[in-house]
Amino acid sequence: MQNELLSPYQTTTEGLGEEAENKEMSSKNHGLIQVRLASFINSFDDYNVATELSLDVSEASRQAILTNYGLATTRELKPDIAVYLADEFDLADPDEEDDLDSVDPLRVQQMPLCAMEIVSPSQSSYKILQKFRAYFAMGVKSGWLVEPNLKTIVVYQGQIRQKHSYMANNGGDVEDSILKVKMLLVKIFGKKAKANQQRQGPTKQPG
């Protein structure tokens, strides 16, 4: 009965249980890395990037997929980062639309081209892998599993078995053949203040 009193712009965690509560428990590393990745991908004209976007999984076919992978979410999946082609997914303009609710929904039906998940201290990699399996079954083509504490990114290309792992300790770039992007791992996992100091070089002491 309580759900009937929610306004269209309120959300509920009913059916999400512990997973929903844990999702809210982020961390400093999680937040910083999320912004770095989103900012980098969004710098390409071909893509639009959304963070914490609610993907609508309430229809029967998607519920069947979630059940198959042991996910109890009844309304939405919310990747940390969702990447879309810019010409297929863009801002809803209130000056151009008569019915803004239909083009700016609270939950989006369209699945992203790429979904990125950043492991937080309260999450397990297994649960995230199950989410990726569900994403791929719903049409997502690429998935990034980002492990801040291990400084590692695993890029999945449409299925869990097809993957490439990248470790910051090995240097180099992380690459995605679906998005056709390449990013220096140090830009994701490195300390910005330290990098700035190195660029500036030593300072002369007075005397």
Labels describing this entry:
about 210 residues; alpha+beta; disordered C terminus; disordered N terminus; 7 helices; two-stranded antiparallel sheet; 6-stranded mixed sheet; globular; 10 strands; tt1808, chain A
How would you characterize the overall build of this protein?
With 207 residues, the chain is an alpha+beta fold. It has one domain (13-194): tt1808, chain A (Alpha-Beta Complex). Helices cover 30% and strands 21% of the residues. The chain has helices at residues 17-23, 28-42, 60-68, 100-103, 125-137, 185-189, 192-200; strands at 47-51, 55-56, 76-77, 81-85, 114-118, 142-147, 152-156, 163-167, 173-176, 181-184. The strands form 3 sheets. It has a 6-stranded mixed β-sheet, sandwiched between helices. A two-stranded antiparallel ribbon has the order 2-3. The protein has a two-stranded antiparallel sheet with strand order 9-10. The chain is globular, with a radius of gyration of 19 Å. The termini are far apart.
